[in-house]
Amino acid sequence: MGGFELLEHTADVGILASGDTLDEALAWVATGMFSVIADLDRVDARDQIEVTVESADGDALVVDWLNELLYRHEAEGFLPCEFAVTVDAAGASLTATCGGERVDAARHGWLDTVKAATYHKLDVSHDGEWRLRVFLDV
To answer: Which domains does the chain have, with CATH numbers?
Structure first.
């Protein structure tokens, strides 16, 4: 069973996400990031976008995934709340269907601005369960 928790840090916000599969852990880390941005209980998955990310390796995939989602959020005004992620066999690229809706600042309850996912203290581990730790520049 997966999930996420927010980690305290002096200038950033950390997310520790887990899942039975890497796909699930990546979905949870994205959910964690957007829970920093808005109240996800107020977001409806009425629209979908498709996201594809190719990276140099599995560690970079975590950061690139989150930064691609932030780009889509900022450039397209899309606020996702659900993520169906599929990672390729090599673990360096993914495709995802993200459910959400256009940003409505009054209804979504803005919490914080996330500038980027970083490599600071990034950790990707697997020992029966996938664990991802990533810090966000806020």
So the answer is: 3-137 (3.55.10.10)
